[in-house]
Design goal:
52% helix, DNA-binding, Tscrpt_reg_LuxR_C, DNA binding, 6 strands, alpha/beta, 2 domains, transcription regulation
């Protein structure tokens, strides 16, 4: 796997690069601004872009805007956003912009090396990895949507799906059977009007609906 890192904090940029190197993951380029990120992904065609939200020159939302642009330049480019904050507007736009290969983690999660590396692999593989705090803040927006039809347990299952957990991991977390999880997920698909297609595609669409409420 080859990645491009966009992070203006030198120590964090070097730290992430070292963590990846220890796992045999090559960093094709490590930059500190959005313009250089776009140049690097076009030059190296990486398997994943790891992007900070706030970078020069204004330190507001350059990273997220660059990530959105990167996914326009290279369709389906997996992007893992690292942020100290939850930037709601751009977060929803990024997470709703494609069928998968997106992640949004708060920087404190990098301290949990195993969790961070799991998110890197999951997003690079086309899955999702969303920080629970990001989910909580997006859910707090409180807009009426089809998710209101879900039971509390179904909402809990969908929340764990949004974090990227497998059915087996969800069953372990909730201390229920694998069959019970499959039943809840089937109910979720039905209530959200997700017609039969590939299981993975419906799963991603359900998660994006959850994150966009």
């Amino acid at each position: 796997m080859r990645v491009v890192i966009a992070e203006d904090a030198v120590l964090l940029r070097a730290g992430v690069q070292r963590l990846l190197a220890d796992e045999g993951i090559d960093t094709a380029a490590a930059v500190d601004n959005g313009d250089d990120l776009l140049e690097a992904i076009q030059k190296h065609s990486p398997d994943l872009a790891i992007v900070d939200v706030r970078m020069p020159p204004t330190f507001t939302d350059e990273g997220l805007r660059a990530a959105l642009r990167a996914r326009e330049l290279i369709s389906g480019l997996p992007v893992l956003v690292l942020s100290q904050y939850v930037e709601e507007t751009y977060a929803v736009e990024l997470l709703s912009a494609g069928a998968g290969g997106v992640g949004y983690l708060l920087k404190e999660r990098v301290a949990d090396v195993a969790e961070f590396l799991d998110a890197v692999r999951r997003v690079a593989g086309g899955g999702t990895a969303i920080d629970p705090e990001v989910i909580a803040q997006l859910m707090a927006r409180g807009k009426k949507n089809p998710l209101d039809a879900l039971t509390s347990r179904e909402s809990e299952v969908l929340g764990l799906m949004a974090q990227g957990l497998s059915n087996t991991a969800i069953a372990g977390t909730l201390v229920v059977s694998h069959g019970a999880v499959e039943k809840h997920i089937g109910n979720i698909f039905a209530k959200l009007g997700l017609e039969a297609s590939s299981e993975e595609h419906r799963r991603v669409r359900a998660v994006l609906t959850y994150l966009g409420r």
